[in-house]
Design brief:
- The protein has 237 residues and is an alpha+beta fold.
- It has 4 helices and 16 strands.
- The chain has helices at residues 2-31, 156-160, 165-170, 202-207; strands at residues 42-49, 60-65, 71-76, 82-86, 91-98, 105-111, 117-124, 135-136, 143-146, 149-153, 175-177, 183-185, 191-195, 198-200, 215-219, 232-236.
- The protein has a 7-stranded mixed sheet. A 4-stranded antiparallel sheet has the order 3-2-5-6. A 3-stranded mixed sheet has the order 4-1-7, with no helix packed on it.
- A hairpin with a 2-residue loop joins β9 and β10 (149-153).
- The longest helix has 30 residues, at 2-31.
- The radius of gyration is 24 Å and the shape is globular.
């Protein structure tokens, strides 16, 4: 009897192990199923001073189409000079890296939406001249900076690479999004977010469909209409 019970228990245990293994395999297959759309990979790198080889914080990294006239994405560098943002699509692009007090560097790059792209160190030479106003021109103006305010026009490339308003803001130079989806400007979290003229919080922006956003204005000199403690205002239209 003991032998028979032992055999029954062994068979039952083996069946349970088999079923459990099949469940794990099925669940793993769901996670890596080619039919499920995966998030776009990242393009990353580090911006450094060409002389000191130290990281440059708050450098603007802007990705344009191959003609240099349509903004496709971008971000700003961390305090250590690191940066990363999602690849908006496949093909050839122009990457523009700029920072106050440095010469602007433009790099042509080819991106593959199926794999991450690490660009390594990008060295910026020191520039004696400081440009207070920059206007990007193409067939249509896509981004304009002046008088403390920068307006970025959201195009189809940016919308296709984004799910919500937070993803769009992640591409805007000067705006940072951390892992907890907190939004800051030039390293400061004391900001005001306005959506179509009404003050909103980050949770509202995270639920806002990317397809509804046409432009983003970054204001680093808030008017007296906003709280005096605010270091900047993000207008989403």
């Amino acid at each position: 009897m003991k032998t028979k019970n032992y055999r029954c228990n062994s068979v039952l245990f083996a069946l349970m192990v088999t079923v459990f293994a099949q469940m794990i395999a099925a669940f793993t297959g769901m996670l890596v199923s080619p039919g499920v759309a995966q998030p776009n990979p990242f393009v990353s790198g580090v911006v450094i001073d060409a002389e000191t080889l130290e990281g440059i914080p708050s450098a603007h990294i802007a990705l344009y189409d191959v003609t240099g006239s349509v903004l496709a994405g971008g971000t700003t560098s961390s305090p250590d000079g690191d940066f990363s943002f999602r690849i908006p699509g496949t093909g050839s692009f122009q990457l523009t890296i700029s920072a106050i007090g440095y010469e602007t560097v433009i790099r042509p790059i080819d991106l593959d939406p199926d794999s991450d792209r690490f660009l390594g160190e990008i060295r910026l030479p020191v520039d004696i001249l400081s440009h207070e106003e920059i206007i990007f021109n193409g067939e249509q103006v896509r981004a304009r900076t002046g008088s403390g305010q920068t307006t970025f026009y959201v195009n189809e490339l940016m919308k296709n690479a984004s799910n919500n308003g937070t993803d769009i803001l992640r591409m805007i130079p000067g705006i940072q999004i951390d892992i907890q989806q907190n939004i800051s400007m030039e390293g400061s979290s004391d900001i005001v977010i306005m959506v179509d003229g009404r003050e909103r919080d980050r949770h509202y922006v995270n639920q806002l469909p990317a397809s509804r956003i046409d432009r983003v204005e970054v204001d680093t000199s808030p008017s007296s209409l906003h709280d005096a403690s605010a270091s900047g205002v993000i207008h989403v239209f």
